[in-house]
Amino acid sequence: MTVVNNMPKEMYDDIEEIYCTGTYENDLMGFCYFDFRFHPTDKGIVQTPDDLGIKYLTDEEYINGERHISLSSKYTEIDGETEDQKKYLQVGAMSYSSDFARNIEGIGDKVEIYGCEYTVSNIFEAEGSMDMAYFIPFTSLPDDAYLESTVSIIFKKPVNYNQFTTIRDIVDENISDDGYVEDLDLSAVSDLAYFKTIIAITMAVGLLFAINLAVLYKYVIRCNEPKIIIFRTCGATRFKCILLFLAQAVIIIAPVFAASLFAFHKLLYPAMINRFQNAAGCLNFQRYVYIFVGYLVVSVIVLLATLIKNISRKLNFREVGK
């Protein structure tokens, strides 16, 4: 319950069901197993419908942890003319012979399970493998009730890295003394998502790069040509003009690109993680620094080439008339 309650709500829709079993003594069939299929919702933990879409316990019973039991009508009509015969139950391919075996009288009858009293709240008609089925809410179990060795969290789609690490961290932080998450080889199912993530990140950063270079190109080429002519006319050397405008452009693009990366991390990156879960952890502060430095170096090279090309060795007084 601690693990389930600590799951992030955005993961609820990804989970198809959580499955676990436990074996408990009861006065209905003696010592037998109980299986639980449920999933978390915004309202609480509810039973997962079976393959036919049937729920045998209401959402309220599950959410509130009510000690109710829902069972097949077969428990009200156990065959046998003698008490000894009534103590023998056939459940699918398994047989139980117990001193506890008895009939259920109907709705409201009591069943003792693991030392707790449960009330029959639903009796359903069933055949085949369900003819002796019974269900109690997982949320109704006492805190000291033991489960079988494995609890399975079944996702609607193949498990991705973000989901795996989230569940593993919750288990390690809360119940590391009692359980652990088995390692999974996620390479086969995550390669495609990983490459999509890399492509998406590259495209996003490339888009920022293109926008900044476009602004930079307009600034250098269209706005500064008259100024360059004036500076050269007043005696500034070509090298000084190149250095002056290069420094001015770097002072502008560095904080602008840094702000763009910050906006990307706060606005676009969370949306990207929701779309491509493998993006979680792909970008950190160190990688952002690499991107920033790489962009700055490339920008300086492009700027330098642009300035060298446009600041000619000879003056072109025709530009002054613009």
Number of helices: 8
Q: Which bin fits the share of residues in helices?
A: 40-55%
Physical arrangement of strands within the biggest beta sheet: 3-2-1-10
The assigned structural class equals alpha+beta
Shape: rod-shaped
Radius of gyration: 35 Å
Write the layout of secondary structure elements.
Blueprint: H1 2-5, E1 15-26, E2 30-40, E3 45-47, H2 59-64, E4 68-72, H3 83-86, E5 88-91, E6 94-97, E7 110-113, E8 116-124, E9 134-135, E10 152-155, H4 161-174, H5 187-223, H6 225-233, H7 238-275, H8 285-310
Parallel strand pairs: 4-8
Antiparallel strand pairs: 1-2, 1-10, 2-3, 4-9, 5-6, 7-8
Keywords:
alpha+beta, about 325 residues, 8 helices, 10 strands, four-stranded antiparallel beta sheet, four-stranded mixed beta sheet
Explain what you see:
With 322 residues, this protein is of the alpha+beta class. Helix content is 43%, strand content 18%. A 4-stranded antiparallel beta sheet has the order 3-2-1-10. A 4-stranded mixed beta sheet has the order 7-8-4-9, with no helix packed on it. Strand 5 and strand 6 form a beta hairpin. Helix 5 runs parallel beside helix 8. The termini are far apart.
